[in-house]
Amino acid sequence: MDRRACPxxxxxxLPADGKILEYGRSIQPLNDTISRRSIFSMSDRxxxxxxxxxxxxxxxxxxxxxxxxxRRNLWLxxxxxxxxxxxxxxxxxxxxxxxFPVMFQMHGQLVFGQMIxxxxxxxxxxxxxxxxxxxxxxxxxxxxxxxYTNLVPPADQPEIGPAxxxxxxxxxxxxxxxxxxxGHKTKLPYWRGRVSAVEAFVLxxxxx
Length: 208
Prior knowledge:
Blueprint (H helix, E strand, L loop, with lengths): L10 E3 L6 E3 L45 H13 L3 H13 L3 E7 L2 E8 L1 H16 L4 H12 L21 E11 L2 E11 L5 E4 L5
Antiparallel strand pairs: 1-2, 3-4, 3-7, 4-5, 5-6
């Protein structure tokens, strides 16, 4: 099969978790500063009218924005499911771009790796797909660059969100991963998972 036929032709499922992990070779990272343009800023010809102007999809007549009380209740529910200690280390990795060895226990598995920032995770994939698609399929390369760079939180992200509530990190990222499950070991280059799915963690743990 042609590797260029589809940008997601090498998925590796995380056992018993249902999450899709992408496998790729080791590459040189991008500079620390990468574009944060919106993924939806790319031209979508299917949404353009005859005159070339962009046509927005019709609004749902039953749609209404959440009230402040509803947003607070949702945040409190999410907050109750979080490990605040893990949130602290994820925040530190995001804000300083440092790495920390860690072990996660989740869904009956042990996940070892180096905790990294979303920026480091995005740099790897941007460079990976640039090398795969830039020459022969630049549109795919542009799309994937937009997708991964838009995962990165803004550098000036405030501590308090627009609803007046503290910002919680939803995802954690690892590199050089070893997953131990049922006596079997699986090694992966990069990994992304939900913070709320982690049942326990040990900082500084390794497989050595």
